[in-house]
Structures are given as C-alpha cells and as structure tokens.
Amino acid sequence: MVPNFEHQQHAHCESGVTANLLNYYKVPISEPMAFGIGAGLFFGHLPFLKINGTPGTTFRTWPGAIFKRVTQRLGITMHTEKFRTPEKAMEALDRALENHIPVGMQTSVFYLPYLPEAFRFHFNAHNLVVYGKEGNEYLVSDPVMEVATRISAEDLAKARFAKGAPEPRGFMYYVIDAPKKTDYEKAVQQGIKQTCFMMMSPPIPWFGNKAIFLLANKIKNYPKKLTQRKASLYLGNIIRMQEEIGTGGAGFRYLYAAFLQEAAEMMKRDDLQQYASELTKIGDDWRNFAYHAARQMKNRQTDLVSFDELSDLLRKCGDEEKAFFKKMEHIKW
C-alpha cells in the first residue's frame, strides 16, 4: 500500500486524479487549477462518429491531455506506458505499488462494479488512481466517489483493456520527480492561452466554438430527419455529456470559472475575477438549455420548448462564448 495517500472526491475524473496525485507529491493544486492549467475546457461535436449509437459530443479536451499539460507546465517528470496484454499491464502495476507509487490509469466505466449501474456504460476514458493491493483486490481512489473503494484484479484488468474507442490498452501513468518550487502563474497563462486558441481557432466546424453552432443546426433538424425516439436518444446523450459525465455541471463551465476565480486571487487580477463571473452566467445558460432539452426528451407537456427553441438556446450559448473567448484572447499579462 502507498503510505499516506489521501483520497479526495472531485467533479471530474482526470483533473481529480491529477490533483490527487500531485498533492501526494507535495505539489499543492486544486482540481479547478489542474483543469485550467491543463486547458481542459473545449467543445466538439462529431456527427459522423457514433458512440453508443449517438453522435459524439464532448465538452472537454481529449483524454490524457489535461494530465500531460499540467505536469509539463509545472515541470513534473512523468512515466507513461501502454501494454499489449493485460498480464503485462497488471505486472507493471504491481511493481509500481511494491515501490509505494500511486498509479493513475485510464479505464472503462462499464467494468467498474463499484459504480452505480446507471453510470456504467461503454465509456473508455475514465481515470482513477490505484494506491494499494490486498490479496486479490486493488485499493482504488476514484475521484468521482465520495470514499476510496476496492476492485478485484479480474474486473480491473477488464476495465483497463476494454474494446472500443478510445482503447485504454492498459494505459497507466505516475510521477517520477516533482520540483520543490513551481511557477503557477506562468502555467496559468499558458493554460488560458491554449484554451482560447482551442475554442476560437480550429478551422473545421466540428471543434471549438464553431461546433456549438453546428450542433444547434443539427438539433433544429432532428424532428425532420430522426424518429421521435432517436431524437430523444440524441438529446439524452448531449445532456449526459454536459451534466453527468464528470463535468461539475454546465459542460465544465462552472469548473473553469472556479479556476479563473482561483487564478484571480493568486495573481491579484480583477479582470480574471470578472471573467469568472461572466463564465458562471454562461454556465447558467448551458444548464437552462439542458433543462429544456431534458423536458423535450421526456416529452413533458408543461413548459415544453420546441426543437427550434432548443436550437436558439444553444446558439445563445455559442454567441456568449464567442464574445467571452475573444476578450480572453486579448488579456495582457
């Protein structure tokens, strides 16, 4: 068992794992700060990529990017590894634990029996920390859980080698060396600049701010092109990715606003505090969209808005974020 490893519950798996691992190595960092430095905020809609039968929608950057960016920007040396077989992956995990090293890893939530059944679907980008082994069970710090838990070796091996995109292939990572002093302010600047770039600069319509308007157009056409059941499934997946799959609410907008607020206090900048307030209000509009989309999905007869109106609500979020990130792009450091 890794001595003195402390489990903390967080809003999102990868930024939560990042915070828990780095705090163990005496690099003090909150989850919002990890999410912001790692430029976790993003948006993408890929209608041609079906996940569980519905078009792919994401409110965060690709798996592994947050941890990689945070450690690079704070000067932390990492070990990362993928494997060809479950046997090799589990052997490497055991060796790290024997050396008292807490190990982060990518898994499928479908094969994690300690999660409520409602949350167990085929999603292969869930991060957690293994910090010990007792008999045939591993001790797990899953940041979405209130307390630490356990999992059998067989179930963990299945979760680490689930099929489907993205294939985890036993991916694991851990800290090799951490500096005694870190430049948080520089890392904050780099994280904000990259977030603005990724939201505003992609030239293709499936990523960044443009993708919000793409999805708005798609939603407007759902009644014309889809059956009522399929339209409901599509809306349900958008809501789930926005409000349930480790977002902290409003598609990570609240989490990123918390990062801006913390950065404002650290750097004594009133402008970042103002941006935090603005993004919180934008997050409220995202949540309003999710509320009405859920009522449409369930065909509630009261307070029901049309698909055209849902499209307009989403366009409002897109317009607000376009103006927001345009201003953020021009912050003077």
From TrEMBL:
<feature type="domain" description="DUF4872">
    <location>
        <begin position="154"/>
        <end position="327"/>
    </location>
</feature>
<protein>
    <submittedName>
        <fullName>Peptidase</fullName>
    </submittedName>
</protein>
<dbReference type="Pfam" id="PF16169">
    <property type="entry name" value="DUF4872"/>
</dbReference>
<feature type="domain" description="Butirosin biosynthesis protein H N-terminal">
    <location>
        <begin position="12"/>
        <end position="143"/>
    </location>
</feature>
<dbReference type="InterPro" id="IPR032369">
    <property type="entry name" value="DUF4872"/>
</dbReference>
<dbReference type="InterPro" id="IPR026935">
    <property type="entry name" value="BtrH_N"/>
</dbReference>
<dbReference type="Pfam" id="PF14399">
    <property type="entry name" value="BtrH_N"/>
</dbReference>
